[in-house]
## 1
Amino acid sequence: MQDAQDSPTQTPLFLFLMIHKIQKALPIKETTTTEKVKTQFREVSDMYEKHFLREMMKSMRSSVPESGLIKVNSAEKIFREQLDSEYVEKWGERGGVGISDLIYNDLVDKYGERFGLKAKQDKPVGPLQLGEKDSLNIRRNFDKTNQNFSFHFDGIKKESTGSVEAISPWSGLLSKKIQLGADEFFLELNHDNGLSSQIKFRGLLQPLNANDRLNAGDKIGILSPDTNDFFWNLKSQTSPQNQEMSEGNSL
């Protein structure tokens, strides 16, 4: 399979390097309690935000040329550094500038399932039922504003005879069913893991009704043989701030 377009969120380089360094340095064991892990994540996140702010202040100071009228001695330079450090500490006490939260959230996203900070997200088993020799193209986009993933599957080719089945990626309830045309359908599924799937395809739909219960892998329809398009929009049922999106795709 070929991933034709991939546009996930990009972490700034300095944060990527910070996070990588943190992940190597964190003295975390499997037996560490959840609260202790949270405390460690928050401490190192705050520490690296302050480190970044100190370097920023130092860079700003160096960009301002001295007048030459009054020569700055070593004692005054030391005092300025201490004053800048005090500014940084005060900013941290008032919530910082957001870098600490960014690092903390990234650590929770990477290690959250391992240490019980967030619910484990099972990989999806769909939304298309394909064999190992079958192929397709995937165009994936990520909406930063609404924290949604959208997938467009096309160029679907099945090695063996038979139709491509559309299946439920995870277990949950069918919340919405709309017939858009003679053989075109839109479905919305609210999954048990807090995610919601919006699916649009051409073909035959299973005899399903709103509020029907579906298990992961249950067939929801069959794609029309003359179509190569299948659309899947994945979003959180909660607000973007509390969202934990899964990028996993087992197709």
Note: The mean pLDDT is 79.
## 2
Amino acid sequence: MKLMHLSDLHIGKRLNEFSLLDDQSYILDEILRIAKEQKPDAAAIAGDVYDKSAPSAEAVALFDSFISRLAQIVKPIFVISGNHDSAERIAFGSSLMQTSGVYFSPVYNGTAEPTKVKDEFGTVNVYMLPFIRPSDVRRFYPDDDTESFDSAFKAAVAHLDIDENERNVIIAHQFITGAAQGGSESVSVGGLDNIPAKVFAPFDYAALGHIHKKQNITSEHVRYCGTPLKYSLSEVNDEKTVTFAILGKKGELSIEEVPLRPLRDLREIKGTYIEITDRNFYDKFNREDYIHVTLTDENDIPEAIGRLRAVYPNIMKLGYDNKRTRENRLIEDISEEVRRYPSELFAEFYQTCNNSELSEEQKSYLDGIIKEIWK
């Protein structure tokens, strides 16, 4: 079975007050073109269909058009709700949609019945698990440990009826421990919403959403496909692709990626005002791209952003990198670290070194040492 894996469309998103609807419409057309070429057997959209729980009419119309056209190319299609979505809105009409081969995740009800997809090697069981919080699971399983995101998600998976002799796919939208963030995600402070990758051991493929940077977690079978567009300046160097997960017989999995080319890229440029307004400089790329400009002039350029917009109409941000700003930045960086409690800094260091968080016992021990030193 060849599964097209998408996630985090964030339809209706604005970046630095620029509406991205035109860019999203273009990239969704690109995805449809790729789907026609690749001929997948199924498609999954792993959450955050919209950027807001109450999307605009334009955003809803764009997704409606996309999913209708995608259904003419590939079926079945599986769509789950993410943390940016309203689970109730995504679930609306799901029973009726199933008759057309389009499956929208219901509001979490304590379980998830698999959809069976047949191929030459037998059955693939596809489970849809929308974004869940501990409180969502606790109401159905009050006797289980559901205090944390980790334990709650484990409890939710434990209550799925999984036949490990068959091939199983899960579509989920959570933050997996060790994932490298793209920069534009909404995650809990301190990694409280982390879930270990080992919880997906019963599945032959976990089609994940939530993290915007494409990556495998521990192995190919646990994967974030990433966003179709760059949604943060921290993603300027990321390559955006469509992921295809190809499941052969039990235990066989391969991943293919097809690059996505946007209508307008997101890029950073740096230099003096004279340098970056020289035609030999800006003719090397599309001036319609979304631009973050860093000027290296020692003196501020009067009305710089207005003058630069004549050259780069979609300039999003303007900053300076010179002797004055470097000194200010150094002072800000030092003062920020001084304000932070030592246990916070040590916890970050421990997470970086060990790819795991301090336990409660370790935190308590650390706090005791710090208090003793300060005495």
Note: The radius of gyration is 23 Å.
## 3
Amino acid sequence: MSSAPAILVLNVGSSSVKFRVFAARDDLPLLADGRVTGIGASPVFRLVGQDSRSLEEGTTQTEAIAQVLEFVSAPDHDWQMVAAGHRIVHGGEEFRAPVLLDEEVLARLERYTPLAPLHQQHNLAAVRAVAELNPNLPQVGCFDTAFHADHDAVTRSYALPAGVRKQGVRRYGFHGLSYEWTARVLAEQTGGMPERVVVAHLGNGASLCALKDGHSVDTTMGMTALEGLPMGTRCGALDPGVVLYLQRSLGLSLEEVERLLHDESGLKGLSGGVSDMAELLRSGSPEHAFAVDYFILRVAQKIGEMVVSLGGMDLLVFTGGIGENALSVRERIVRRLAFLPDFQVQVVAADEERMIASQALALINPLSG
């Protein structure tokens, strides 16, 4: 019996490789779901529905990807890989749609690494690792920035001189794969897509998106994924003068400032060390309660910004780990918005991996749905 075609989806970070396998057909049934965590220290290979197993100490990212490819290519599976889809965080101004990845494209994408230092280098390294291990497998890049690519000039610009703006200093927005998936789910539901929708992607990374007739017209993240809402460890909106003060008056180096804003701020900085919302909610300590209060206020305030961009709000959608699972957080955000005219509230389960699989399938098979 011949094997069914399948698509591997990879979401690779500095210490983890998340993967899913989908059947390469329009309804994209999930065939396998797993991850390798603890890369560089004590790595563990986990597959949903099976026991986890430890890998060799010090396993590298490339070696972890090799373990994934070995699993998905095993002869006892009734599938055959026809493509690999990758989440690539930053596509800049030029990558506005999924693209087949080769060395020339990767070289162009490397230019955006300073704009997404926590993600881009690992995303691209994963593509090269797969190419080395399986050079005949087509690979597709799917971009978190692409969904926001058509924002108008007023929305995407910073109030900086034209010469600076022409160097690519502008608002790009992120979490686009999540927002595109949410828009697809809403469009397919009974009654279709409401005209004015604010989507709150709340997780370790957090942002908002204003959808007008299913299209992104505004979002809270900017040139990098630091802007907008406070996150697990990222600061969110910040007076740029703070950065100058940290360097000039407190003597922090550029690397120290970068680590502070990316890794030590957000909920972690506010609470005194805890970045996980579920843990903060369980604790109830004054410091942890303060972090939760801060997060809720800032989310509600930024939703107000999205409402202005839309001229109103018909539906507020929550997605992401916090958005889907923290009922009390959702309720408190909604209460702060009670002054707005009537709007509906809905939860949509995030599925960026399925969105990537869908985009990869459409690129390698233009006749697919």
Note: The chain has a mean pLDDT of 95.
## 4
Amino acid sequence: MGILDNLKEKGHRLTPQRVMIVNILEESEGHISAEEIYSHLHDRYSYTNISTVYRTLELLKELGLVTQTDLGEGIVRYHEVTKGHHHHLVCKGCGKVEDLPESALFVLRDKLWSDYHFRAELSHLAIFGYCQKCLEEGKT
């Protein structure tokens, strides 16, 4: 079930702006910021403002339809959950971002539960450090 179907099923209005924001999210190849969404939206529909984008993204996040993360740029980026859960390794030296499958953190999730009785929600993380190339070049 897509985002628009979920919104409709949960009784939320499908305004033209919401539909376009969802379409932009679904069309994006990776993670996209509210500002980038607004820029695309404004090109197509100039009668909107950035607060509409933020309110829509907050609603989608509350409904569990998008995740948000900061990849170290100080910018919150959004990702549609139906595109899969994954995490990111972010190099502080060169800025390279590498996707990490969700399964890579299963051991950590299980360890947090067994040792601390804490159920971690590891749905979308950015882990910062240094890639091998930067370590070899002394960029730490």
Note: The chain has two domains: 3-80, 86-136.
